[in-house]
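Why should sequence recovery work at all? Because a backbone constrains its sequence more than one might expect. Tight turns favour small or flexible residues, buried strands favour hydrophobic ones, and helices have their own preferences. The token representation captures these environments compactly. In the example below, the structure is given first.
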């Protein structure tokens, strides 16, 4: 569910007309619904009521500070994959005791930051990382709580680029190597094994592959406990899909929670979850303005002011986003098939091919639905285009929570060498 709907002929986010936001913040612009963020966080929390569960929101899905602050107020922790995301979570008020640090390429400086603030857990992804973490922890006189991320060789995810649990993916340690690495942890100073971590992909609509991976991981937990390891946690990652199309029907959080309860029942484990997309995805849209119609022999291009640098998912994953006119089409409005493209000097700068939708005029605005996750966070300043503004709506109120940088802001980190002055 989301809180974007037509009112009086205009698409609104909660109580605010998206045209008003576009007039204020310019286009393209991301708009997030507080009501949707809160509702999704509460639906997940309610589904897992009665289970010992840490809901660590995946910051990489949407790291805007206002979004993080909203979710912190709902009791969410944070799953982070960099020192910058860790600092964002802390700045937004998420306590270190609710932060889980994932990712295959943690630097020693990032490890030190996590140890110094006392995060909940490090999800370690290789033997080399484990050795480095031991050295950093020992130097600082700290003990790192560790869950080893294992690769269960289970394929899942809506696109090969977001499948992370198959043999050959860069994530996790090979299944057969895990027991020996846990034995190694017994001898490493500054390391305490506390659990096992698994994450097999993103935008997963069916529970069967997740259940297969989780059951396999539970069998490893039991094996490791029998070998003398005092494991009290299992991190099951994220990955639950959302409806990008009106007829999509991914598994609901209630079924997901019940499956996890069945898999983990009786083991006394803290369950750690890393939901991102399922919380933020449908809580945001990107609004863009139509610049030109460009007829071609076999198609009509709809050229808009947003580019692949603003919303990367279609170019990166061939992802679908429903696209709605901000001004509600009148009854009987003719429909047209468009190739919807942006101004970037790349052929991959295409949001949709042969998309049938109501005719829109130059100057009209369109909204890319379900853009709250992996939208603004993947944006760049390619072609020297400024980053997109972000706006948070709460009821009838709205605020710009990331402003569009000026040209001067974009170049202030650059400087001329002496010989060019």
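From this structural description, the recovered sequence reads:
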């Amino acid at each position: 569910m989301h809180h974007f709907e037509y009112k009086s002929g205009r698409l609104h986010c909660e109580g605010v007309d998206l045209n008003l936001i576009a007039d204020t913040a310019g286009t393209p612009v991301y708009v997030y619904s507080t009501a949707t963020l809160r509702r999704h966080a509460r639906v997940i929390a309610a589904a897992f009521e009665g289970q010992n569960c840490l809901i660590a929101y995946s910051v990489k899905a949407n790291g805007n500070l206002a979004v993080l602050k909203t979710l912190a107020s709902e009791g969410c922790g944070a799953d982070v994959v960099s020192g910058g995301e860790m600092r964002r979570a802390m700045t937004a008020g998420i306590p270190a005791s609710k932060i889980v640090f994932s990712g295959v390429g943690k630097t020693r400086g990032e490890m030190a930051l996590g140890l110094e603030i006392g995060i909940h857990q490090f999800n370690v992804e290789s033997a080399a990382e484990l050795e480095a973490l031991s050295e950093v922890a020992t130097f600082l006189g700290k003990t790192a709580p560790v869950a080893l991320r294992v690769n269960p060789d289970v394929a899942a995810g809506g696109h090969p680029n977001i499948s992370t649990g198959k043999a050959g993916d860069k994530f996790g340690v090979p299944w057969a190597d895990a027991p020996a690495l846990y034995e190694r942890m017994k001898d490493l100073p500054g390391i305490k094994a506390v659990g096992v971590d698994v994450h097999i992909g993103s935008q997963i609509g069916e529970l069967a592959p997740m259940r297969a991976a989780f059951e396999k991981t539970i069998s490893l937990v039991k094996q490791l406990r029998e070998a003398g390891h005092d494991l009290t946690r299992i991190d099951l990652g994220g990955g639950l899909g959302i409806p990008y199309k009106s007829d999509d029907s991914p598994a609901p959080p209630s079924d997901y929670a019940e499956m996890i309860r069945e898999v983990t029942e009786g083991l006394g484990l803290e369950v750690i979850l890393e939901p991102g997309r399922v919380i933020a995805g449908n809580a945001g849209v990107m609004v863009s303005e139509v610049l030109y119609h460009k007829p071609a022999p076999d198609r009509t291009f709809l050229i808009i002011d947003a580019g692949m640098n603003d919303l990367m998912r279609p170019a990166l994953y061939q992802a679908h986003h429903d696209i709605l006119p901000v001004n509600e089409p009148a009854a009987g409005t003719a429909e047209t098939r468009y190739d919807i493209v942006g101004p970037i000097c790349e052929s991959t700068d295409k949001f949709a091919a042969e998309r049938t939708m109501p005719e829109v005029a130059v100057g009209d605005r369109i909204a890319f639905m379900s853009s709250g996750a992996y939208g603004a966070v993947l944006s760049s300043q390619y072609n020297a285009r400024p980053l997109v503004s972000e706006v948070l709506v709460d009821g009838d109120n709205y605020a710009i929570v990331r402003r569009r940088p000026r040209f001067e802001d974009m170049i202030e980190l650059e400087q001329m060498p002496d010989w060019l002055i």
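A few observations help interpret the result. The chain has two domains: 4-31+281-411, 103-273.
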